[in-house]
Amino acid sequence: MKSYTLPIVSSLLGSAYAASHSIDVGEGGLVFSPNSTTATVGDTVTFHFYPRAHGVARSSYSKPCAAIDNGFNSGFVQVTSGESATTFTITINNTDPIWYYCPQGDHCQAGMVGVINPP
Ligand SMILES: [Cu+2]
């Protein structure tokens, strides 16, 4: 599934618009695609998982392959083929950079990292 931005009308905050962003996890390699996403407050970002067992957890710029305390973590999603029906969605609460990585094995060291709202 390719990434896209779909504006939807939000019932929150009157006439505000919220967008939903999509990130593919491990499709065709140890990558998030896209690996950089720009989102605004109220938007959602949904991760879609591909074989075989990836996850997504929040990290930090200084330690990109280590989970931060109280950060989001999807856990590992097992997939035998194609795109999993299991997704993981976060809601953007501010526009600070959100660094994330795949905690599986050495995937992060192999480059499986990404950022929402890069500085
Ligand atoms: Cu992975």
TrEMBL record:
InterPro entries: BlueCu_1 (IPR000923), Cupredoxin (IPR008972), Ser-rich/MCO-related (IPR052953). Residues 22-116 form the Blue (type 1) copper domain. Keywords: Copper, Metal-binding. The keyword Metal-binding applies. The keyword Metal-binding applies. One of its GO terms (molecular function) is copper ion binding. This is Blue (type 1) copper domain-containing protein. It comes from Aureobasidium mustum.
